[in-house]
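Thanks for the sequence, V.! I ran C4-dicarboxylate transport sensor protein DctB right away. Repeating your input here for the record:
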Amino acid sequence: MRIAVAAVLALAIAVMLMTNVWLTQRFTETTRVRAELRLALYTGNITSELQRTNVVPLLLARDPQLIKALDTNDYSTASARLISARQEVAVASIRLLDMQGRVVASTNRTQIGMAFPNTEFFVDATRSRETIFSLNTNEAGGTEFDYSRALIQDNKPVGVIVVEADLSKFERSWAGISDAVAVTDSSGKIILTTEPRWRGVTMNEALAARSAPSAIERALQATADWANDAPDAYLKGQAVMRTETRVPFRGWKMIAFTSYDSVRERVNAVLALEIMGFAILLALVFYALSRRARRQSQALRAESAELRTLNSRLTREIAEREKAQMDLAVAEQTLAQSSKLAALGEMSAAVSHELNQPLAAMKTYLAGARLLLQRARTEEALSSFQRIDDLIGRMGAITRQLKSYARKGGEAFEPVDLRAALSEALSMMEPQLKTRKLHIIRTMPRGSVMVMADRIRLEQVIINLLRNALDATKSVAEPQVELMLTAGETAVLSVRDNGPGITDLDKLFEPFWTTKKPGEGTGLGLAISSSIIADFGGRMTAHNSEGGGAVFEVQLPLLSDKNRSVRAAE
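Predicted structure:
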């Protein structure tokens, strides 16, 4: 949910930034187009006014009443005639000048008697027979737009009629619509403007002459510059766009300045709607979060109640377990005594199991020695006695090693060749093997297979596996035992028979578990053998063969310098 809130905020910022840029460009272009349309309208109004005023001097220059007044120097009715004409054509003012440049009649009676002998509208009109247009400065410092024409009598100029076009009315109308409008003449000087201080100067001078902005104004100006495109100019400290068009009259130009306020208002209105929408979305997200938190709080309260119940139940169970542990301690003492008795039974059974094989071999060798002595074959009989002596030594070693069944062995470890141990075990089993018709297949590598072990105990394991194989093949018509010794990463000795196999592999290495009839086995052979192999750092496994019979595998680590050093340290 935090990621969702962050995603909504990031989306809102991205959308508002994109909206601001796109709408600002669009509304700025719309505002610029509207300003251009207004300029076209203003230009048409100025041109129309000038064209309409241009006709008035031509009409008045042919007025016989005005010509007669100039001829007779009777101007009593001339001013009234000019006032009447001014009302009809709606111009700013009309003046009648004699040939000395003196105003003899005017719509503004305060101008009567004023002399303009050197002005452009008088001098050029007396020299020409056409209507003359001129720009002049009035008493208030403003610009006059005058059309003048000479009055002709007997092919001689007798006076000059001057008509002032009323363009100042446009300044008043522009001031209420546009931020700033100015008209410049062909020299670049401002002749019409909504800003009075701009009159008579160039546009660059007008824009450069502005007061230094305050800190607040600079901050607002920087904000406006960031929010909009680069402004064309600054007007009263505000960024404005400049729109310019040509007036089809004497090289005049009209320039309008429009602020970005309308653009920002429209853009801000859309941004406000977007902010409102994202605010509602965030409110819904926070509402969902609050609902989720409420549900989690309810779940935590329920879980807390369950934990309190479990805590009380655990307290009761701990008390019961403490009582059970006290009972268990008493039972353990009883079991320890029983274990001691069981250990004595296992030891006696182990002694019986391990000594049976040497005793049987000794009996066989004694019978053979007796026959050899009767036949006077003394040397062969001595060989049998030597074997009997070896077996007696072996029996002594077995009784000594029975002490190690209750602990981990290791005092008699030495490098042992598995090939020699297997051959010795087969030699000890020779009397039993000769009593049976048994086919033994032996596969061994040519080189020695050295392991670190106790030679006597290792031979006991091999003899035990051979005896189990003999017992397993009693009911088989053609008994066969396969012995395979391999050396790879470890030394592996496999003993495989073709008997009926093993029914319960899980209990195979448990003490006192056997498949033999009572009196034929104690069930300790495989358990003792597995323990011996474990002492050597290996393991014993068993499984049934796919072709029938059981397979026992003894895996032992091969002898290396590392193993030798570790055993020496032990």
